Please model this.
Amino acid sequence: MRKTFKTWYEPLRTFIQSKEFVNIALNIRKDRNTHTIIPKEGSDLFFKVFRETNYDSLKVVILGLDPYHTDNGAYDGLAFSNSTLAKPQPSLQNILTEVESDVYNGLNLERMSNYSLYNWAEQNVLLINTAMSVRTGQPDSHTALWRPFTLAVIKAICERNDIVWLLWGKKAEAYKQFIKNSSHSVIINGHPSPLNTYNPFLGCKCFSRCNTELEARNKSKIIW
Model:
């Protein structure tokens, strides 16, 4: 067990040892009898997000929806990250476009050799999905199943002070009510999907706003 994962165990211990957590595993195992599930059984992608970002050093939380539900290997363990693909999923493309516009004045720096967001995770940004699994081709299919776990994670994070949350889209915004720590800052924007035309993500400047909030808390800014 990696040291980073160990830092999450105590904050989540009560839930991990509960019947609710066992029931999630049992329901996923049962669902595999009739559906193809992402990640595959035994995959190291399960809970990988907690092995990449240390609870004790956490600074930013980006709350995504469920994992990419396509069977092309897009999901790599972190919300929105695409380290296994030759080109990014549409949502990630908009995220990277906004980074370049917001933080780098539109300059295309070609900063990534692939479309991994693991460098953000290494800077104490938790890129967490609201579900740790999904049926192939059926978005949102396991979100309700994982909801108790997601709420347990949010509660654990709220035990820490001065965290900045980025909630993208109405479904992520719905979790704002559970962020009950007045020292936290919550930045809400539209979802980065290009299908979102009602409240477009592009132009939201959430990355520079996040860094401003961090610096106001005497924390180093994220190199997006």
